[in-house]
Amino acid sequence: MSSSPQMPELPIVPAAVTAAEVVPGDLLALSPEDAERQRWCVVMHTLPESPETIRVTLRPPLGGVDRDEVLAREQEVVVAGPRMDVAAVPAVSSPRLDEAAFRDGDAVTRLRAVDPRGVEETYRRRWGLWHRDLDTRTARTATDDEVREWAAGADQERYVVRHHPRPEREPSVAGPRRVVVTGLGAVTPLGVGVGELWQGLLDGRHGIRELEGDEFAELPVRVAGVVPVDPAVLLPRAAARRMNRAAQFAVLAAREAWADAGFTDGGTRESGLDPERVGVSLGAILGDASVLVGGDRRLREKGPRGVSPLTTPMTVPSQAASQVSLDLHITGEARTVTSACASGTEAIGEAVGRIRYGRVDVALAGGAEAVVTPAIMASFAAMRALSGLGLEDGVSPSRPFAKDRAGFVNGEGAGLLVLEAEEHARARGARIYCEAAGWGLSADAHHMAAPDPSGGGVALALRRAVRDAGGYVVDVAHVNAHATATGEGDLAEAGALRAVLGLPGVPVTALKGHLGHLQGAAGGVEAVAAVLTLHHGVVPPTVGCAEVDEAIGLDVVTGAARALPRDGDLVLSNSFGFGGHNAVLALRRVR
Questions:
Q1: Residues of the chain whose pLDDT is less than 70?
Q2: pTM: predicted TM-score of the whole model, two decimal places
Q3: Cβ-count burial 468-490 (b if 16+ within 10 Å, e if not)
Q4: 545-583 burial, b if ≥16 CB within 10 A, otherwise e?
């Protein structure tokens, strides 16, 4: 509040008078210095003390305890404004808080009661500190001891201090459900499986390789983050022939996530689940561009009869989602999100919403992509978006946030999460990695390919994700950055992170030095890594970043893994795409 509810807005017009002229209701300062510093009191009543003196009872205008002053009748004092109704000035004393048991979620209000225009400050306790603004990491904070000192000295200092314990949580009625992560699956340039991904991240290895084959020979850039195993050999031959490469990645990752969540091989029926209560939500930009290119080549070489009837169903971006649905007999829904490089993260967010509001109970969500093809590589090179650095020096050519970053490295793979309604997971005794707490979207509306250099759209998505998670900026403990290693893109993201999180901010890592840019699959794979960061309490290093660009201004984790800070419970995973698509996923540590 800006002032006491009974306190009208008074014009503060100081005027010098003698103490003998003072009457009850006057707003009084004992000296011009007090008036200048806005130290006023209301005269509650006066009493002659002697022929030369007068006893004046004073109370802060916004409420407080009374004190008496004996003034010489001829002593000059300062009064201001019209007289006040003394009955409207509350008599209050601030209770001591020496024995109070503070908890996160409590609030303390502090009001400088001698200033008629005083503004009540509210501090909220979070992570053991009292924050003036929970959405600004650099805002004023206070310790428990300082708050106790405020209360102990409040009456003497003419403050009103109040402790407001957090309300006891009441049983929730029907409403949004909490969503948790119970399974993980990944196929990446570091290998097949989540174990290969996580160990490679911690070891600081990368999976970027020289592209082989005559079709890549004439390209200006011939390195990419490719999966080191042919996914077709890991699937039944008949099934693999009906899937494009991205769908093969997706099915392998889905099977791993399904098993990791404790479900039975085979799918929903074998696991005792209602297939109508399970969904699939995958992100993809193109899926597998090679199928359409191959079909066009066979058309030109062999004519219409040479084109496979599977060309069309294997070309559409929704092929990965449909194949996961077929493989695990999921009938609730099988959706595909296409929003450039934000596709995987947005697909996870969409699945969170579907579970929250009861459309399904379980969902496989993430992204899958296989676009390491000559035409795509040539197109990215023509845009001058690809890194021209090679593998000769043993350092990844993808260098997020680095001073010598030179563009992104194209990549492929898949990353999926099993998401569940919390009550569903707990009812079956599932292991819970973390909570999928919220997500945020925005659009730059700036350029078809270049990011908005202001970072305004990215900042909006970040704030929306934190708010959707029911959290505050001070809850953020780590950010898994999108950071593609492009000059403008990394600067725009860094600027947004500084604007939202402040300085020094939180530990930030970027995984595209390990993996390359997996396009529509990037959000899914990086979400898997963010879940593991929360689960293990370890932040992987940023590979390829030998020297952080000074203009980035972030706490980038380099060299070796680092312990995840404990003063926060949210991890953000960022994904941004051509055309200004921004998506941020918020994950929360389960306490």
A1: 1-10, 170-174
A2: 0.89
A3: bbebbbbbbbbbbbbbbbbeebb
A4: beebbeebbbbbbbeebbebeeebbbbbbbbbbbbbbbb
Marked catalytic residue, from 424, 478, 482, 535? 482
Q: Is residue 434 annotated as a catalytic residue, yes or no?
A: no
C-alpha torsion angle, residues 222, 228, 233, 238 (rounded to 10): -50
pLDDT digits (tens, 9 = 90+) for 421-460: 999 999 999 999 999 999 999 999 999 889 999 999 999 9
- Which listed residue (41, 341, 434, 545) is catalytic? 341
Rounded to whole angstroms, the Cα distance separating 389 from 6 reads 70
75-97 tens-digit pLDDT: 999 999 888 999 999 999 999 99
The pLDDT assigned to 163 comes to 98
CA pair distance 314, 240, nearest whole angstrom: 11
Given the residues 517, 535, 545, 581, select the one marked as catalytic: 517
517 as an active site residue: the answer is: yes
Would you say 583 and 439 are in contact if contact means Cβ atoms under 8 Å apart?
Answer: yes
Active-site annotation holds for 482: yes
| C-alpha pair distances (Å), 250 with each of 83, 191, 270 | 76, 14, 20
